Write the structure tokens for this entry.
Amino acid sequence: MRNLVKASLSLMLLGGSLFAQQAPVQVIPGVKGPESDTLYNLIMQQATLRSTEVFRATEMVQKHGPLPEEASSTRRAAVVAGSAADAPIQTLVVPALGLSAVAGVNFEGPGIGLTGFSMTGAPPDSTMAVGPSHIIAWVNSQFAIFDKTGTVVAPPANGSTLFAGMGGLCETTNRGDPILQYDRMANRWVLSQFAFNVSAGNAVAPYLQCIAVSTTNNPLGTWNRYSIAFSSVVPEGFNDYGKLGVWPDGYYTSFNIFQGSPAGSFSGAKLCASDRLAMIAGALNPLTICTAAASYAGGGNFLPADLDGNTAPTTVAQGGLFVRQSTFSGGALRLMKLKPDYVTPANTTFNDGFAGVNTFITILAPLTPACNSAGGVCVPQLGTTNLLDSLGDRLMYRAAYRNRAGVDSLVVNMSTDPDGAGARASAIRWFEIRSPFAAVPTLYQNATFDEGGVGARWMASIAMDRVGNMLMGYSHSDTTAKPSIRITGRNRSDIRNRMQPEVVMQAGGGSQTGTLTRWGDYSTMQIDPANDCTFWFITEYLASDGTFNWQTRIASYKFGNCI
């Protein structure tokens, strides 16, 4: 392997007003390393050479608290009227009907339950991508490759294995916060994690995002590898909590930017688009175009829309869509659009797509973040006073987009306070936004799922299959129950704003003890590209009480009307 010669990255700040048609952007040339050896060979070569570095095993694991909300001036709201959009709290279900999605395989993902896995910290950041024949599951801070029966095709390996031979921090550090996708338009895998140095327990510059794009649909084959550097100049800094969405004109990513470390001051959100076609082609310096320094300093936790299915979005002229939860007008979903121009970056636009400053979809029913609006630590467990973090201050990954014969939907969820008064910890609010690229999007349906009105539900992920059925996976816990993994969903013909009865995907055998409050950080629901019908879900559970002893579980479900 030849080493990557590190280049000095020049960052250009281009003039213009934030919401003008010529928006200020940050242009970051990606630095490409040499094409990798086959991933199978790299995993085998490094199986006995894994880093002994401990990842975030102390206070860094606690990360940050809720982020500030933007000022409420100069806002334009897209108000959706009508009782169908004003969600009730769903506590009553009809048990006799049951969940109509049929369970498929169910097997152990990366964690202490998987042979060869090395525990390096918590939370796991459970995520995965599903291809035609394989599943890659990645947690902090190793990934493993499975076939769809759950058989291990490649054993757990450090995330940095992907970047072996590239040189630099992508190869020499293994920091985690993984995120990955299967780009079904190009039949390529896209895997990413961040990289940085550590001093006195804090993240220090340089701050990199490491991205690997497979050269074929074979996950055990070769990869093109890139490093993208983020400025360490205040008010920018550490690129935390990255999320990735696949779109025809780019790989869209969102980050929360902190000055110096996860414990440092919050600088704002950075929303980016990487030149997808150039990365697939193995270009030497594909551009990543981001909103400029602190261009969105008022709030974070955006999610990029992620394309599901084989049909392109109803429009790509407006670029990629980003969504976040907002406290504007008592509770809203905020939509923003980034349209990159990789040829003339100064022509990149960042606005609501219709020359307005903002698009808000106001939620007429109460939208109260979990933990009595705190969005923080309040989830109870059996046998311990240690509470878990609801992460109720943000929408939860993914923001799954689908175009069904011209009906385009964006589905997403968050943790909410079911009674609005803190007497109950957390339930799950889910949304289906239709026509998200229209001047006034439609909140087609949404509700708070709180079956039986008992226990806390949080850390969810939701998606839609090609005929319009939905499935949602999440964690459940109570003072009378260990944290478990549960599933609910809805058939496309069900009454709007309603989910079917939940089922237990994996019973919990342990509670998280000690003082560690973070749980999961995110989970992932994906759709199988082989049939566009099968749902796959991964998240955390514990087999016994403990702190750094988490496991993950992967399972599939399918509705009978999707054939």
